[in-house]
Amino acid sequence: MTKEKGQEQIGSRTYLVDSMQLQDIMKYLMTRPYGEVANLMAMLARLNQLDPKIGADFVKKETESTNGKK
C-alpha cells in the first residue's frame, strides 16, 4: 500500500483547484530544488479533471449545508 492510498482511507479531504492556482503552485515548485519537489509535482500532475457535467458549485452548496448543522 502506498502512502497516498493510506491517506485516502484515513479520511482525506477533497479540494477543487483551478488551473490558474495549479500553474502558480507549479511555478513556485519549479524554483525549489528538484529533490524537494519532484514527488509533489508528480502528484499535482496526476490530479483528475472535474467532469464538466458536474460543475464546481456542488461543493459550495454541500459545505454551506454542513456548516449550518454544526
Description:
The protein has 70 residues and is an all-alpha fold. It has a domain at 16-48. It is 63% helix and 0% strand. The chain has four helices and no strands. The protein has helices spanning 3-9, 19-30, 34-45, 57-69. α2 runs antiparallel to α3 (34-45). The longest helix is centred in the C-terminal third of the chain and has 13 residues, at 57-69. The protein is elongated, with a radius of gyration of 15 Å. The termini are far apart. The mean pLDDT is 77.
What best-fitting shape do the alpha-carbon axes yield?
Answer: elongated
**Structural class, judged by helices and strands?**
mainly alpha
Radius of gyration: 15 Å
Which whole number gives the mean pLDDT?
A: 77
Helix content: 55-70%
Oligomer: single chain
Could you give a quick summary of the protein structure above?
The chain has 70 residues and is an all-alpha fold. The protein has helices at residues 3-9, 19-30, 34-45, 57-69.
